[in-house]
Design a protein that fits this description.
4 copies of one chain form a homotetramer.
Chain A: H1 2-30, H2 36-43, H3 47-53, H4 57-80, H5 85-98, H6 100-114, H7 122-144, H8 154-171, H9 175-189
Helix pairs in contact in A: 1-2, 1-4, 1-6, 4-5, 4-6, 4-7, 5-7, 5-8, 6-8
The structure holds a DNA duplex (21 and 21 nucleotides).
Chain lengths: 201, 201, 201, 201
DNA sequence: AATGAATGAGAATTCATTCAT
DNA sequence: AATGAATGAATTCTCATTCAT
């Protein structure tokens, strides 16, 4: 008896994953205007199945976005121990920016759907906060290594990070342009006397 | 004889202005999901009056956004002749970034509504291109004055500008944070040896 | 003082005529879906002027249609005295059928607008009844002349007339086809032994 | 296992049928001006259900009209093998004419809604073409049997058919009148010497 | 647990008709 | 008398969410 139950759970788990993948694709491309039915179609399940797993569209978006932040968080943790803390920071910065298209569409979809209600996006908010914290660690390390100006704090670093992410997502920049813009930011962050390796970006 | 005609036009003109103001407010806050009826309500006119003045929602958004770019353009032209070209550029940069919240919501609403169809947003596109050009002029002047690195070109400057605008709009930054982030960007842009006046922002 | 009044009346009269012509054109082409504003535009007057002359769309359509029936009535009266009563009837029949496109669009527009309410189209109904009567006279004459079967009465003749009119209007027949179809009807109407002149149609 | 799937489908199928019936009634009476909401109300379903089954009003009308032509086509095929080809043709003609009220309102509604765009009414067009072809067969048989004049071809026969249909639909003729008018047409079609059985109509 | 059909609350847009000048 | 701006009711269609199987 427990075996069939397990089998079903496995089914359900795989459906859940398929739905999340489909939602990431669909909302990442079409933003808030994409419909939940499109997600179901792409996932190959019925619409009711989507709603069984995620009772509201906002919940679905929240989960998708959280997953995406979590993936980034893993990368951040992976580079956290790097012996070149400056490169670690700049590489992470670049990685987040590069990942931005799609993620931002998701974030805006979520925003549109929740109407900005506080806490409506709790999973994503938590994951995003964790990522922020991890970036904070990278920042501190880079500062301790003398690579980044000491008067920089996380809020302004994050403002720059968000900005460059949005810029990339919105303007469909040639990568050369994006690299140059990031170069300016990194130069601005660098401690006096620190020489960034120009291929960093 | 011309008076009655004028009188009507004055009425219509004032309604048109009220509608534009209302639309700027409503869509600036609520983005694409805000409804044209909300605009009508806030403007204190009937829904059909909105559609008489702006036959499509896209047209209304286009006009509102164009107006906003035009206001910025005026500022750009005002500082163009400044005898301190570096300050002129950085002040303009700051002004555009500060103006961003609302404008960005408008831009995204327009995008959502047009579905990205080319030319569907012609007024706004034209005005935006003019602003970009004007910023290009400020950049060249600042470079000629030796204040900004010579290897910077307009596309990357604009990428930074858009990014910081988005950042400001999205993160509802405290102005202190925003100023610090801008400081980093400006430092990254500055020619070696150029000393920005720290109160620039 | 009376002169200016007269002048105005002349103005008004010419406006009225222009509106009627425009309405005939616009509704004759576009049916009920055409808008009263289109009429005003084509007539070169303001929309309020149209409504001053014809307080409802139904009233306007009624008048236009009545005018059209009246024109036909004049033709019917013109041929009434013909010394070849059979030709007179068949020619009148053909004339009405040929005039049908446009008239039918008007009739249907009127119908759609009134929702079939009785008496809502009184002018047109009266004029149409007069035309019917005039055709009745032509029928009787043709029967007295031995050209048309004696057992035919006005209602069935009119059914045929309406049918062929609708057919012409709807099917955009080549005139050769229409002529052949009319030929069948005329043959069916002809008294035994009567030889229609084949160019009748 | 298949039962639940079937059950749903049965539900949906019955709704679909109810919607089609309601649409036939509503548009057959009210023409294009009738609203899809009226259809929903009469069918006893929500408005969205109508749109789920027929994503556009034009599609709904197309299907309703096609169904109606198909019913007629069945009759045409039923009489095609009759051993009295003349009666077969005249009976079919009469049947089509008698069926006209309602059908014509549907056709005009469809026309209004599609704006005459080609192919927008494909199902109905196809079914109508099939019916025409079937009538063509009946005509040929009747001519071969010597009952109908040899110089008649399908286009003019169809012009007459359409005309008498419209006439019936528009004028709400007493059946006696309609019969007499049809009698005229049939006499006009009959080959010289052929004696129609007077009860044909 | 999964399905797909059903639902009603909007949203943009149009139009006949009325008002103010 | 003429104008054109304003109005609100109506219409088609979409979507998140719920129900029945």
């Amino acid at each position: 008896m427990s075996t069939p139950a397990r089998a079903q759970r496995a089914d359900a788990r795989s459906n859940r994953a398929r739905i999340l993948d489909a939602a990431e694709e669909v909302f990442g491309r079409g933003g808030a205007s994409a419909s939940t039915e499109d997600v179901a179609r792409l996932a190959g399940v019925g619409i009711a199945t989507v709603f069984r797993h995620f009772p509201t569209k906002a919940g679905l978006l929240d989960t998708v976005l959280a997953r995406r932040f979590e993936r980034m968080l893993e990368r951040a943790e992976a580079v956290a121990g790097s012996e070149d803390p400056a490169s670690a920071l700049f590489e992470m910065f670049t990685a987040i920016v590069t990942d931005a298209p799609g993620k931002i569409a998701l974030a805006e979809a979520l925003d549109e759907v929740t109407g900005g209600a506080d806490g409506a996006a709790s999973q994503a908010e938590r994951a995003s906060a964790q990522l922020r914290q991890a970036v904070g660690v990278l920042l501190r390390r880079a500062q301790e290594a003398g690579a980044v100006r000491a008067d920089i704090e996380l809020p302004e670093l994050y403002a720059l990070l968000i900005g460059m992410s949005r810029s990339t997502a919105v303007a469909r920049l040639e990568s050369g342009i994006q690299a140059k813009a990031l170069g300016v930011v990194f130069d601005g962050l660098a401690a006096p006397g620190y020489r960034r390796r120009s291929n960093t970006m």
